[in-house]
Amino acid sequence: MSDRPARPQAATVQPRDPPMEPPRTSTDDAVAGTGRQSADNERSVRIRASGVEKAYAGQNGGVQALSGMNLEVYDSEFFCLLGPSGCGKSTFLRLVSGLLEADAGEIDIRTESDGDRPTTSMVFQEKGIFPWKSVLDNVAFGLKMRGVGKQRRYEIAREYIEKVNLSGFENAYPHQLSGGMAQRVGIARAFANDPQVLLMDEPFGDLDAQTKRYLQEELLSLWSESKKTVVYVTHDIEEAIQLGDRLGVMGARPGHIKEIVDVDLDRPRTRENLDIARLEELQTRVWDVLSDEVQRTVERR
Amino acid sequence: MTRLTGSRVVGQLPSLLGPFVVLALAWELAAGTIVDPRFFPPPSVTLPLAAELYIEGEFLTHALASVRRIVLATAIGASAGIAVGIVAGWSHRARLLVNPHLAVLYPLPKIALLPVMFALFGLTETVRILTMALAVFLLVAINTMGGVRSIEDVHIEAALDNGAGTFDLYREVILPGARPQIFSSLSMGFSVGFALLVVIEMLAAESGLGYVIWNSWQLFTIPRMYVAVFSINVLGVLFVHGTEILGDVLTPWEGTYQP
């Protein structure tokens, strides 16, 4: 715990260039649902979760993974869900993707009605790509499932393989790739699907620091090119601040949003133009919110 | 792919032929000095005899009868085994239903069932083939089930997230995911199948290489017996290793196949 007094919430956020930030007044249990009206007016909401409940059946009764989970994610923003392990952040991502169904509550994703773009596409933690498919077939998989012809889907896949700097590895199998390369395949697959919302489940969690940094930059450049809405799950505070427009800091058992933090750092967040002082302030603040959560989680072990 | 398989087979030939050559040379030298050539006729006797017997045609009929049995039995046993293994591996309920039966039948030596099978179906070719097929079935079903269960949840999730339907799930994830184990069980199935084949032919058939082995032993035509023994050996090597090689070629992602 830090010895300085908990910072008052940095509530008033400087409006950044184009789409205007909604005025967020985050208090300790400010859930994104509050102030919905103003948010709607100023920036369109892409994902709205309200009152989401999810429990898992266990041997000694169930485990409540999420309870009273409220969240709004805006269009084209890079939203990071941050929390200790076991706080239900991956569960929430699976509810958004439709892989799991909520017990109660609603998750609405506003979709544009153009063509057959999938609503969401997920990048998995690790091993998310098929070991029995070549890089090319892995990247083209979602397109194949949507019935895109062979020639066309390989064309699209090649384009994204190039974008993640894997040209020349089209016919390689995952076992021939390093962890970082394999994760790029997963990212290329998700982008090739051209989803309206990109979901990422700790995609760089198992990579070494340098590879991680490099892939984060690669991801940001892909993101700024496509302007997709991203929900990015991580337990790494630094990563979340490095990447996100806003952070949803989660509390555990049952999982819920504890606080929304605006990351008012200019992009690109390179070493040269990064406001280090502000970065540290944000880190401290997030850590303050998280530390008692983490302590609770650790004590339970 | 065929060309690659060809080069793989050629590449393996020395290691497969080597033991035969070494044995033949040692045997040739030992016959008449260390071992009794009446019981252990040297290759210089058996090889010309083999050529003679095969050209004559009767031996070829026996060899083909054996091949027919092993191929039919494996085809029936393996296809049923793959089907049951996939369903039981995928569905928890099906597994609860099927698994105890497999577990009880698996350790039973299938040859013990031969009289029972004859009692049920009469002394027919069907029984010979079905008994072998049962052994192959159990091996393949249990291993396929294991293969399906070893597929990581994240691959199922990834397929569903990318919009895969039930059919896609089988074709794109479950079958390829279980394929390495399916092929290794097929290869084991052939070796178990050959063991059963010989015993069944010795006990209850009028044709086949197993029959020739036992018949030659009783008639004391020892060189003929060895021709049959080595014929079985060669067939076994072909089927068992052929399946392994085919499996390696069809699972290139395993990285065991180096062209």
UniProtKB/TrEMBL annotation, chain B:
<feature type="transmembrane region" description="Helical">
    <location>
        <begin position="102"/>
        <end position="123"/>
    </location>
</feature>
<feature type="transmembrane region" description="Helical">
    <location>
        <begin position="220"/>
        <end position="240"/>
    </location>
</feature>
<keyword id="KW-0813">Transport</keyword>
<protein>
    <submittedName>
        <fullName>ABC transporter permease</fullName>
    </submittedName>
</protein>
<comment type="similarity">
    <text>Belongs to the binding-protein-dependent transport system permease family.</text>
</comment>
<dbReference type="InterPro" id="IPR000515">
    <property type="entry name" value="MetI-like"/>
</dbReference>
<keyword id="KW-0812">Transmembrane</keyword>
<keyword id="KW-1133">Transmembrane helix</keyword>
<keyword id="KW-0472">Membrane</keyword>
<dbReference type="GO" id="GO:0055085">
    <property type="term" value="P:transmembrane transport"/>
</dbReference>
<feature type="domain" description="ABC transmembrane type-1">
    <location>
        <begin position="63"/>
        <end position="247"/>
    </location>
</feature>
<dbReference type="GO" id="GO:0005886">
    <property type="term" value="C:plasma membrane"/>
</dbReference>
<dbReference type="InterPro" id="IPR035906">
    <property type="entry name" value="MetI-like_sf"/>
</dbReference>
<feature type="transmembrane region" description="Helical">
    <location>
        <begin position="129"/>
        <end position="148"/>
    </location>
</feature>
<keyword id="KW-1003">Cell membrane</keyword>
<feature type="transmembrane region" description="Helical">
    <location>
        <begin position="70"/>
        <end position="90"/>
    </location>
</feature>
<dbReference type="Pfam" id="PF00528">
    <property type="entry name" value="BPD_transp_1"/>
</dbReference>
<feature type="transmembrane region" description="Helical">
    <location>
        <begin position="189"/>
        <end position="214"/>
    </location>
</feature>
